[in-house]
């Protein structure tokens, strides 16, 4: 997790340098799932803070395991705030954050997307700020995520593009 989180933070800093964001420091919402992908997100948030970003974490389903508890404690000791609830509207996320890190589900996710993640993914489908996904866009293998979201690999990073009502395709530059 330490190497994965550091690698993700480094890739994000390269693709979305803090100086290219509209706020200073650049604000990042890191949304963590209950598994290893969520742990990667916690580590990523720590490193983003060290790189000059201002991360905020939303972690709705925290596993009660020593490793994950330690990762949460490390973030808290670095004064990285944790949200008690997800911003309910995409527009609110767009207003508050320059970037979203999707650390919800990874490659190993199987099955249907359940609450609260179904609602979270629905909200994320409406944001206009960039979403950087760890592993793959969460829920991309599920029918429940919604139409019009396409995972796109650009510059070695997965990104989402909204294609509703268009014939756009996603290709690497």
TrEMBL record:
It comes from Molossus molossus. Coiled coil: none annotated. This is NAD(P)H-hydrate epimerase. Catalyzes the epimerization of the S- and R-forms of NAD(P)HX, a damaged form of NAD(P)H that is a result of enzymatic or heat-dependent hydration. This is a prerequisite for the S-specific NAD(P)H-hydrate dehydratase to allow the repair of both epimers of NAD(P)HX. Accelerates cholesterol efflux from endothelial cells to high-density lipoprotein (HDL) and thereby regulates angiogenesis. It catalyses: (6R)-NADPHX = (6S)-NADPHX; (6R)-NADHX = (6S)-NADHX. It comes from the Eukaryota. One of its GO terms (molecular function) is metal ion binding. Pfam families: YjeF_N. Keywords: Isomerase, Metal-binding, Mitochondrion, NAD, NADP, Nucleotide-binding, Potassium, Secreted, Transit peptide. GO terms for cellular component: mitochondrion. The lineage of its organism: Eukaryota, Metazoa, Chordata, Craniata, Vertebrata.
């Amino acid at each position: 997790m330490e190497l994965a989180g550091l690698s993700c933070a480094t890739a994000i800093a390269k693709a979305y340098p803090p100086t290219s964001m509209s706020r200073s420091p650049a604000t990042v919402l890191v949304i963590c799932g209950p598994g290893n992908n969520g742990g990667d997100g916690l580590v990523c948030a720590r490193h983003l803070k060290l790189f000059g970003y201002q991360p905020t974490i939303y972690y709705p389903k925290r596993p009660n395991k020593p490793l994950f508890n330690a990762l949460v404690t490390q973030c808290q000791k670095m004064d990285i705030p944790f949200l008690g609830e997800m911003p309910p509207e995409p527009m609110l996320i767009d207003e508050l954050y320059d970037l979203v890190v999707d650390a919800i589900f990874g490659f190993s996710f199987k099955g249907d997307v359940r609450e609260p993640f179904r609602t979270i993914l629905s909200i994320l489908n409406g944001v206009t700020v960039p979403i950087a996904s760890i592993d793959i866009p969460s829920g991309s293998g599920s029918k429940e995520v919604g139409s019009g979201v396409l995972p796109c690999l650009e510059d070695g990073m997965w990104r989402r593009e909204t294609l509703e009502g268009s014939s756009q395709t996603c290709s690497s530059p």
